Q: What sequence folds into this?
């Protein structure tokens, strides 16, 4: 029987990063993955393929909407070849998952394909195609991720009533795509198909899209999406989804209790994801779940069984790839006797619509709720020369700073390249910068980052220079 210092179950961004860090720190490491390709949800059916389709559809939209104004003429009609677009996405996924195989090999990590199940606290059985092998590990890291969840009355047929996984490989552009859920995944995929020509209707239970982000961001994105002609039905409670041949009928009640009936050819259900522990054998090892079905962990990501840890989507906290990665590193370094730390307040959240939306730290709603006295500095993207040059005028940067100390408490932005700009907010907050600090740093001109400096100037008093 093969023996390891650490065995990781699940090869998503949590699992593979944990395995690499364990190997770097000199531990004999194995990683168990039930699918043929490594990389988990993120690389196979999540972050990477969705961004590949967002990029392709963005190019198409630019070509049909903005090229002429840039003085670029395209003879003939610009057409979408969806199958080629999907094939390119598959190629990007293939290159990226192969990259993880290379990293496993480079770090001398044993990759064991098959369904991993805890036999007890130190043994894992791995079953593939009727063959079973057992390995022994001093420490085990559970990184089994999540799966799309649904509502109890919805039958996901995966043809017309679909999850994000199927939406990433449709064979045709929907005529009318109805999306249940106005969160990150629903809006990103909605924008892909909207750009490609579908009518898109979002039905959201809460009174705003992106309900966990700063309300100012929701409001601005709502304005932009409406301009793009995406229909948003907020405060609507879906009560049934039925399929009739090629038609999907969604019924919902608005906040006055009035029924609306939507008819489309596809319904994408994006109501969240559930932690995935099916077949993992938690009972055999005595590992407990919390009241939300996640693997229960303490601050050190240790389960109730001391040598078994859990990270990523399968535990509490934001379901984000980079959060899973940080947790993988934290567990590995702890096992090596180090004292790592994660500040969960500083894990950024990004929505890759266009304009992009990004946030880190506290929202205004949270600060109000906590009774913190804060000031706001906000600067519109449209006042930047860089935005005019690229015709990306929507959005703003908003900085929230403590009224007494000027320490930055939250960074919220919507606009071109916000996904990359948010790193400045994370860096600033990691070093506990004040708004004054940012306002006195040189920001390259012309760049979108000038909006960050201007928002900091606004937060420190009435000092913005370009408005
Ligand atoms: C459409 C979509 C877009 C997304 N976009 C982003 C984004 O832009 N940015 C971002 O940060 N996050 C994004 N996410 C979320 C991100 O994918 C997850 O947060 C991330 O993948 C979680 O990583 P993980 O390692 O915890 O689990 P996962 O990536 O889910 O990996 C878990 C792995 O464990 C394997 N596994 C499970 N059980 C077993 C078992 N018993 N034996 C063996 N193997 C097993 C699974 O097959 C899987 O490969 C997106 C998700 C979706 C669905």
A:
């Amino acid at each position: 029987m093969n023996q390891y210092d650490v065995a990781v179950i699940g090869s998503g961004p949590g699992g593979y990063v944990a395995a690499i860090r364990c190997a770097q720190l000199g531990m004999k490491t194995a990683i168990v993955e039930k699918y043929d390709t490594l990389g988990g949800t993120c690389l196979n059916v999540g972050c990477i393929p969705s961004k590949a389709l967002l990029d392709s559809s963005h190019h198409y939209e630019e070509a049909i909407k903005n090229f002429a104004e840039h003085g670029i003429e395209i003879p003939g009609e610009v057409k979408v070849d969806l199958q080629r677009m999907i094939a390119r996405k598959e190629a990007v996924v293939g290159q990226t998952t192969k990259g993880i195989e290379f990293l496993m090999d480079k770090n001398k990590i044993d990759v064991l394909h098959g369904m991993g199940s805890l036999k007890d606290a130190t043994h894992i059985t791995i079953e593939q195609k009727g063959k079973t092998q057992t390995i022994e590990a001093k420490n085990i890291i559970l990184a089994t991720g999540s799966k799309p969840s649904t509502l109890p009355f919805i039958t996901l047929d995966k043809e017309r009533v679909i999850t994000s996984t199927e939406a990433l490989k449709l064979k045709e552009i929907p005529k009318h795509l109805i999306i249940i859920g106005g969160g990150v995944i629903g809006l990103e995929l909605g924008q892909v198909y909207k750009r490609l020509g579908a009518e898109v209707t979002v039905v959201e239970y809460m009174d705003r899209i992106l309900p966990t982000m700063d309300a100012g961001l929701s409001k601005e994105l709502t304005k932009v999406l409406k301009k793009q002609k995406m229909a948003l039905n907020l405060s609507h409670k879906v009560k049934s989804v039925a399929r009739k041949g090629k038609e999907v009928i969604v019924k919902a009640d608005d906040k006055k209790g009035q029924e609306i009936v939507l008819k489309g050819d596809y319904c994408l259900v994006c109501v969240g994801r559930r932690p995935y522990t099916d077949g993992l054998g938690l009972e055999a090892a005595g590992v407990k779940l919390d009241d939300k079905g996640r693997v229960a962990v303490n601050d050190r990501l240790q389960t109730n069984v001391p040598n078994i840890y859990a990270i990523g989507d399968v535990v509490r906290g934001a379901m984000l790839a980079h959060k899973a990665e940080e947790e993988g590193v934290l567990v590995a370094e702890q096992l090596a006797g180090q004292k790592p730390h994660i500040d969960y307040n500083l894990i950024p959240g990004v929505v890759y619509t266009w304009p992009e939306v990004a946030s880190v730290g506290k929202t205004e709603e949270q600060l109000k709720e906590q009774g913190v006295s804060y000031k706001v500095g906000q600067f519109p993207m449209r006042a930047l020369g860089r935005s005019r040059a690229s015709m990306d005028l929507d959005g703003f940067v908003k900085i929230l700073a403590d009224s007494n100390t000027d320490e930055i408490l939250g960074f919220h932005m919507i606009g071109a390249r916000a996904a990359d700009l948010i790193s400045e907010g994370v860096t600033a907050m990691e070093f506990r910068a004040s708004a004054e600090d940012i306002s006195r740093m040189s920001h390259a001109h012309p760049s979108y980052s000038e909006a960050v400096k201007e928002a900091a100037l606004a937060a420190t008093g009435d000092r913005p220079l370009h408005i």
About this structure: Residues 82-106 form the longest helix (25 residues).
